[in-house]
Amino acid sequence: MRSTKKRRILAATAVSATMVLALGACAGGGDDKAAPGADARGDITIWYSNNESEIAWGKQMVEAWNADHPGEKVKAQEIPAGKSSEEVIGAAITAGNAPCLVFNTAPVAVPQFEKQGGLVDLGTFEDGVSYIEERSGDTAEQYQNADGKYFQMPWKSNPVMIFYNKDLFTKAGLDPENPALATYDEFLATARTIVKSGAAENAIHPAPTSEFFQSWFDFYPLYAAETGGKLLVEDGKSTFATEDGQKVAEFWKTMYDEGLAGKEQYQGDSFADGQAAMSIVGPWAVSVYKDAVNWGAVPVPTSTGTPADETYTFSDAKNVGLFSACENKGTAWDVLKFATSEAQDGALLELTGQMPLRKDLTTTYADYFAANPTYEQFGDQASRTVEVPSVSNSVASWQAFRDAYSKAVIFGEGEISSALEGAAEKIDSLVAKD
Amino acid sequence: MSTVATSTPPAGRSTLPAGGAPARRRRRPLLGKNPIGILFSAPYLIFVLAVFAYPLVFAVWMSFHDYFFAAPGAQIERQFVGLENFQEVLADPAVIRSFGNVGIFLLINVPLTVVLSLVLATALNKVVRFRTFLRVSYFVPYVTASVAVVGVWLFLFSGSGLINQLLGPLAPSPSWLINSTWAMPTIALFVTWKQLGFFILLYLAALQNVSEELYEAAATDGAGKVRSFFSVTIPGVRPATVLVLLLATVTGANLFTEPYLLTGGGGPNGASASPVLLMYQRGIEQGSPDVAAAIGVILVIGVLILAFIQRKLAGGDES
């Protein structure tokens, strides 16, 4: 009996040892070197977003490219389904089967993809840096990593603004054409009127949940506006534990404390359903709300009421990544330039209403904006946006911020100043880590 | 594999000299008496090794290294960091809180699951009319996707939802799912309700093995229905109870979907965050699978300890 037991133990030990050794071998990373391939040409695969208008843009772009490049065909597909695009792309990088280009790369995920060795430094192409900077101008700088390299091509933004429901404003007895929403005091007064009148259950309803990205649609746009375009982290240090950050947080806390903004997550679109009279969204929403809501849009408020043409906001940009698993990087770079050419950017604007991250946007596409005046203010706003900072541990930093914000602002526990300071300290250490 | 032929003693005769070691031991075939059994069990064995054992060992390995997911060609040095990841995890109040949260969850969910599923299974076992309808009714939540059911619960437990309307002034403020005190118990209630059908099924199967004669004997001795339940049914389904306890604990400790969906990522203020939710955040979203693995290893150890205690307390001599 004892011998059988001993044999079992030995067998188990042997199996475990084999597995550990195998794991060690697997985890060793291997000695492959990144394939040069910068000039390699041939067929490539690209992924694009799965929303209807971007699929339409992607299809026409691929057709146009393939028609002129029979030897370098592009095969396109929607990003495979997953909890988020970033998870799918991260998994594809790890598996070594990422496509050449992803036309929906979130800037917040880029530092992580870069750390994984999944992205190509676009500066390694001869005209990489000059192309990006000529196309996007000064805005491009926000998309550099700490070493000043571009691991992403700035592509398009969705500068967020305050959308408001004109019908609900009228119902509340407010002027729907000139709503008083420029300063915090005006915004609060308008919000109180809306809720008090019963026109809507909430004046506004940004998602009050704990996901790391939710602060991009409540705190961050107002912080960008209040500070005249400061990023959450600059030069490796948090910027928000200041008087400006405090003002923004206090504003939102008042909104929550007085029941003007909902603390519970809403199933569906609170703005489309009329449950909230306002929303913070970008130009993608224009086509979505076109027939559903009689809407208007204004810049996000600031404490002093910054003029519209000086107000900054969050860009909500999506960029393009060129992935290291790509064999034909030369073709991928050419396709990337083709897809971000003036003509294709115009098609993107036309088909999706999203703003190409291109300098002089409103003058380059003056005809479009003249024909589509509803988009004009977004085109103008696109020149004053801030991006999520391109820093190490970007997602963890945003989660740290969200946790502190959620506690102090949404649920009103503890002092705002100490919450912001605590979050700043944590973020500073995260950013400093590799 | 061939085995060495040995002379075997006649049946009934001992090979052991009195008080001594065997003079000559019978050699057992290396692959057991039925080598073909290995062939039949191989697919499942491979499945267990590939899907459970390998990731578990890999997770333990990751938790002791500076590890992150990388592209196949990337030059990465996986440094051994000893207990650093565990230190980081144990110094993180959010992680400690998540273990506390899941403790609260288990304290509510496991006993409630055992009691409700046993009582309902016993009742269902006696019911003659609508038996199938009732069984299906209890089983439907289990087979329905959480994502779909969560929507209904969000509606029911929202501030202006049906539950609060029924409770009127007794409704908690803030409402259930955004209330630090009530968020986790509400999740525990949701999971209990959702999983109940499966556990009822286990008990129903176990109840078929409880001999009717025992109930008759108990009745002859003057036991009423309640007495029979405690003296016959409960001891009779003890092996099932151990299984239910174990499964409810293991699935409960792996809580993820509900805090992810029902309370929007473990809110309010992390009051409903579970260790697995944090593993997802740290490992997948934030790119620190080494830290996530350390949380996972602690969780596995915790669950093993709990399972051991349960087995000692409830298992008896059944197994």
UniProtKB/TrEMBL annotation, chain A:
Annotated PROSITE patterns: PROKAR_LIPOPROTEIN
Coiled coil, from the record: none
Gene3D superfamilies noted in UniProt: Periplasmic binding protein-like II (3.40.190.10)
GO biological process: maltodextrin transmembrane transport; maltose transport
Extent of the signal sequence: 1-27
Cross-referenced SUPFAM superfamilies: Periplasmic binding protein-like II (SSF53850)
GO cellular component: a single term: ATP-binding cassette (ABC) transporter complex, substrate-binding subunit-containing
Keywords: Signal, Transport
GO MF, one annotated term: maltose binding
Family assignment from sequence similarity: Belongs to the bacterial solute-binding protein 1 family.
Name the record gives this protein: Carbohydrate ABC transporter substrate-binding protein, CUT1 family
Organism of origin: Cryobacterium psychrotolerans
Automatic annotation (TrEMBL), chain B:
Residue spans crossing the bilayer: 36-62, 102-124, 136-162, 182-205, 237-256, 291-309
Keywords, sorted A to Z: Cell membrane, Membrane, Transmembrane, Transmembrane helix, Transport
Subcellular localization(s) per the UniProt record: Cell membrane
Membrane topology: Multi-pass membrane protein
A Pfam match: BPD_transp_1
A single BP term in Gene Ontology: transmembrane transport
Gene3D superfamilies assigned to the protein according to its UniProt record, in alphabetical order: MetI-like
Region (Disordered): 1-27
Gene Ontology CC annotations of this record: plasma membrane
Family statement drawn from the similarity comment of this UniProt entry: Belongs to the binding-protein-dependent transport system permease family.
PANTHER family according to UniProt: ABC TRANSPORTER PERMEASE PROTEIN, DIACETYLCHITOBIOSE UPTAKE SYSTEM PERMEASE PROTEIN NGCF
Protein name in UniProt: Carbohydrate ABC transporter membrane protein 1, CUT1 family
Species of origin: Cryobacterium psychrotolerans
